[in-house]
Amino acid sequence: MRATYRERRDRAVELLAGEGTRYLRPRGSFYLWLDVHDHANGDVASWALDLLRRRHVAVAPGTAFGPAGEGWIRTSLATDTDQLLEGLARITKP
Q1: What share of the chain is helix, strand, coil (3-state, %, to 5)?
Q2: Residues of the chain with pLDDT under 70
Q3: What is the rounded CA–CA span in Å between residue 46 and residue 50?
Q4: Long-range contacts of 5-9 (CB under 8 A, 24+ apart)
Q5: Rounded Cα–Cα distance for residues 43 and 36 (Å)
Q6: Domain map of the chain by residue range?
Q7: Do 42 and 82 contact (CB within 8 A), yes or no?
Q8: Which one, 23, 32, 39, 50, has the greatest CB density within 10 A?
């Protein structure tokens, strides 16, 4: 599974970098943090709910992990690669 997660991570960060989305590259976990400061207008939890409703993508708002998470969302690499990339594409597209 390490090789699988590494491949998913690498493909995910390639997509994000290509879209100009800031992210924190995971080193030892299967979670990827994305910067949504420019999209969330100071309320990531509401933005994440809207993302679920409108684009059918579930993410964890960074504030669920403490106040320093404001402006960030956490996604999981523990899903099918195609679904992961599709979800990230839905997040990054205007």
Answers
A1: 55, 15, 30
A2: none
A3: 6
A4: 5/30, 5/77, 5/78, 7/81, 8/77, 8/81, 8/84, 9/77
A5: 10
A6: 2-92
A7: no
A8: 32
pLDDT score for 56 = 97
User: Given this model, what pLDDT does residue 94 score?
Assistant: 76
Concatenate the DSSP letters of all residues of 29-53 into one string. SSEEEEE-HHHHTT-HHHHHHHHHH
Edge to edge, what strands does the sheet with 31-35 contain? 23-24, 31-35, 72-76, 60-61
Is it true that domain 2-92 has CATH number 3.40.50.800? no
Instruction: Decide: 9 and 32 in contact? Cβ < 8 Å.
Output: yes
4/81 Cα distance (integer angstroms):
9
Q: What is the distance between the alpha carbons of residues 59 and 43, in angstroms, rounded to a whole number? A: 14
